[in-house]
Amino acid sequence: MSADKTAKNRTQQVKGKAKEVTGQATGNKKLEYSGKKDMAAGEVKQRSGR
Questions:
Q1: What is residue 28's DSSP assignment?
Q2: pLDDT tens-digit profile of 15-31?
Q3: pLDDT value of residue 3
Q4: CA–centroid distance for 23 within its chain
Q5: Distance in angstroms (rounded) separating the CA atoms of residues 46 and 41
Q6: Considering only Cβ atoms within 10 Å of each terminal Cβ, which end of the chain, N or C, has fewer?
Q7: How far is it, in rounded angstroms, from Cα 6 to Cα 42?
């Protein structure tokens, strides 16, 4: 996997974690679940080599 794709996938994971934490702090379940979804998508892409 190229370094560019790895960086994009890792960025998606970090953004997802930030959304999740913000959602938890504000009580916004939609934002929290969106963050979890972004984190999972980034992990799947990274593991599959996309």
A1: -
A2: 999 999 999 999 999 99
A3: 85
A4: 13
A5: 9
A6: C
A7: 9
49 pLDDT band, cuts 50/70/90, is confident
The answer, yes or no, to whether residue 1 has pLDDT greater than 70, is: no
Neighbours of 31 (CB within 10 A): 17
**Token representation of residue 22:** 């913000």
Q: One-letter amino acid identity for 18?
A: A
Residues 7, 13: Cα–Cα separation, whole Å: 10
Question: 31: phi > 0 → left, psi -120 to 50 → alpha, else beta; which?
Answer: alpha
